[in-house]
Structure formats: structure tokens, C-alpha cells
Amino acid sequence: MYAGKSNADTSEPTSQYHHYIPRFLLRNFAVHRDEHRKSTTTAKNKGKAKYSQPENLNLLNLQTGAIEQTFLRKNFGVQDMYRDFTPSQPDQHKMEKQLARLEEEASQIINLVKRRFEAGKEEVQLSRREKDQLRKFLFIMLYRNRSFHSRFEKSREDYDAKDRETMLRYMDEKGFTHPREIWFANLRAFLAAENPCDPYRGQSAMAWRDELMAQAYPPDAEWYWKNTQAYYICFCTPSCELDEFLMTQNAYSVYEGPTDIVWTDYHVFAPITPKLMIVSRMNVFRNSSELPEADFFSDLLRSQHVDPENAT
User: Fold this and answer.
1) DSSP category for residue 14
2) What is the rounded distance in angstroms from the CA atom of residue 193 to the CA atom of residue 170?
3) Non-local CB neighbours of 129 within 8 Å, separated by 6+ positions
4) Mean of the per-residue pLDDT values of the chain
5) Which of 9, 81, 103, 128 has the CA that lies 20 to 30 A from 109?
6) Are 28 and 115 in contact (CB under 8 A)?
């Protein structure tokens, strides 16, 4: 059962500011407050200059067009965004801790890629597990964002997303009383999911999909399955050295592709530094030596749209 905050309970855990874009990524876009970096000294390294870590962000005010500087720690987040007020949940910030563990794993992979790029390398080699974890991280970054928080924060009566009828029927079947409970259940299922291609699991991709569909809201479980199985990862840089990628509130849900009758997101974008972006590309763009059926699946996808010849 979903409950609101209780002011009567003085033992209630402390309210927290939860980032939907992790700080390890925001720091890649951070700047110092002053134009020139401030150096500090420590007792251990007396006399040696030590640059402080930038903790500010330059934000574009879309209403005024002005660049404003603000603290990194208080942006790209919502107070108590992942806090679970369910009475049966002893640790109200458990979801935030689970997300933090995924962020820690992802940060190691992304920092490896970043170091290779900054060293002038054009390629980086990742293990199967690292690529699987990165795909999971990218989907959860999409699914945990502010728009989904707004969607699931609404009560059963006020829930107005396009899937309202399906959502309310699912709530009745599973005994959920508030959409937020479904969001948390889905996030837990996605965080716990293991890739079916792991040779130690001995489970087919379709069997894993069916298992996931039973544990999470089926339309969103299907979406997770597609994004972790039907895409391959590329790393891109701006074509012009003077250009930079921007971090926006919806940065991890930006896609490219036709969405008339069906939703075909050929590419999904994820900036990780001003000079480096992850692009998840549909497998239909693989060359024939890697995926002989690529042309067939590409034609099949286009055929589902109003204008197949231009559904690219």
C-alpha cells in the first residue's frame, strides 16, 4: 500500500536529494566557480598545488537565454525521488542504494572508455559482461528519469498516460494501489535481471524474456528486453572540435527514428562527457558479416510504418 509522508513519526528517515543523472556523469560537465581554477594545499602536500574538483554547472535558462552557474549537487535530481514510503519497507532509501550500486559499476566502465578517449585511442575493448552492464545502465537511466517519476507519482485516479487502461487492469491483477509501486517493482526487476546470453545461466533469450514479463509490468518489461538485446553500443565524438555535447534533463531518452504507427527508435543517445557520447544502434545497422539477417529485419521494421520507403 502506498502512503504519503507522515509528520507524526519522528523516527522517519532523513529526506534526501536523489539525482536521476548520477554525479559521476555530471562531474564530466562541471566547471569551477571562478574563471581560473583555484589551487589548494594540504598539510600532507604542503607547498604543492592541488587543483580542487569542479562542483558547479553552467546551466542554460531556456526562458531568458542566459547562462547561469549553480551547484552540481542540487541539480538534475528531485527530493526523495526514489524514497519508498510503503509501510512494509524498513529501508525507505533502499532503491536509491540499489541504483547507486549500478552507478558504481557503470562508472568504472565509462571511466575506462573516457581514459582511452583522452589518451587519443580510437578503440576500446569491453568484455561481454561490461557491455551487458552498460546496456542495463543506459535503459535504467532512461526509465528512472524525471518524466517517469512524474508519470508514476500520480494516483490511480489521476493516472493519465496512454496506457491508463492497461495499467489499471495490471494494478488490479497484482494488487497494487498506487502506480509508484509498479515503478519501484519494475526498477527492482530490471536491476536484478541477468543477461540470458551469459553461458553460465543456461537460459534462452525468450525464456528470460518470459521470466522478466512475469516480474515486471509487461509493456515496460518488453521495452527493457528490446533495449538490452536489440542494440549494439558505439562511442561518438563531435565532428567539429569546437562543438560539445550538452547534458539535458531528458538527455538519456533522446532517440532517432519514425514513430507513426509503431515506435522504432533506431538510435538512442547518451552523453557522458562534452566530447563523448554513447549511441545505442539497432542491430539492423550491423553489417551482413556480423548479422546476415540485418537487411531482412530492417525491411520488416520499415514495412510497419505509414511510409516504409522513408521510415528511416
Assistant:
1) P
2) 21
3) 198
4) 86
5) 81
6) no
- The pLDDT value recorded for residue 259 is 81
Share of residues in the chain with pLDDT > 70 (%): 83
CA distance linking residue 119 with residue 279, whole number of Å:
21
pLDDT band for 1, please (50, 70, 90 cuts): very low
Cβ atoms within 10 Å, residue 147? 13
> Would you call 143 helix, strand, or coil by DSSP?
helix
Kindly provide the residue ranges of all beta strands, DSSP E only, lying in the chain, ordered along the sequence: 17-19, 39-40, 50-51, 56-60, 67-71, 77-79, 231-236, 255-256, 267-273, 276-282
Beta-ladder partners of 268:
255, 280
Phi-psi category of 80—alpha, beta or left, where left has phi over 0 and alpha has psi -120 to 50?
left
Residue 282 φ/ψ, nearest 5 degrees: -60, 145
CA Rg value for the chain: 22
What single letter denotes the amino acid at residue 37?
Answer: R
Half-sphere exposure in the Cβ direction for 131 (13 Å, CA): 18
Length of the chain: 312
CB-based contacts of 248: which residues, under 8 Å, 6+ apart?
254
Of the candidates 259, 276, 272, 270, the one whose C-alpha atom is nearest the C-alpha of residue 311 is 259
pLDDT of 201 reads 53
Res. 2: pLDDT tops 60: no
pLDDT at 202: 53
Residue keyed to cell 550538452:
246
pLDDT at 162: 93
